[in-house]
Amino acid sequence: MADLRIFSYLPNPRVSKATIAARFCAVDVEIRGASGKELRDWLWDYDARPLAEHERQSLSSLARTGRIGLTGAQLFKTNAFLEAQPFGNVPAAFGPNGKIGIFESNSIMRAVARLGEATFPLYGHDAYEASRIDSFLDVSLVFARDAQTYLLALSGGTVNATIHARAKEAFAIYASGLEQALSPRRETLVGNGITLADICFAAELALFMNEHARAEQLSEHGLDRILYPEVQSDYPLVFAHFARLVDHEHFRPDLKPYVEKLLSKAAA
């Protein structure tokens, strides 16, 4: 039985936070899921699975209206799922018996690090390093909130100048802080090795790169790319660190194909 089971839409760089951490820490993480559209036809549960057509009617009492990312969709969520996952969102993680739910990708990633702390110190070597790591994770949440609003608006055709401006400012603040943190010729954000701070950063930037696939929508609204062609020159340490992480053996299986696909769209 896996140490942790995660249910989510796939691919999802926020799930990759946990799977990358698991490779460092030798933690057994099981992933269940499908594309966002396909999750409409899944039973949302610890034992999540695709629904057979005849089950949709018999399980109609479990139907809930989707919100973020699946707004208005009819989703089938068990009562046990909602007890473990009170906000009803994915990624949703569970302990081995399915009773304990862990939600929000940074918390799921932290759970992996705690489970495997004896193998690799992803959460730092002492309380001070752990707290500094938490500082980076907390800052990432501010960026991630505006980034998600922006990316969902792009994919849903509802992006406007206000949403774009908030995401642009959030990225500038986030990238500037990371550039400063890396400026003393550092190769990691905290301490002398890779930590949860680096994993979170790489996953969030990879997710934000979905902007590259929405150039047409931006053009239609007279908006420029936030990840403009010269952005790597303006934040050289940030993007050099990102490149190092994407090529790392524990990051590469999740992030390299994801990032390469989006970069190909940017080039097109």
UniProtKB/TrEMBL annotation:
It comes from the Bacteria. Keywords: Transferase. GO terms for molecular function: transferase activity. The keyword Amino-acid biosynthesis does not apply. Coiled coil: none annotated. GO terms for cellular component: cytoplasm. InterPro entries: EF-GSTs, Glutathione-S-Trfase_C-like, Glutathione-S-Trfase_C_sf. GO terms for biological process: translational elongation. Residues 126-268 form the GST C-terminal domain. Signal peptide: none annotated. This is Glutathione S-transferase. The lineage of its organism: Bacteria, Pseudomonadati, Pseudomonadota, Alphaproteobacteria, Hyphomicrobiales.
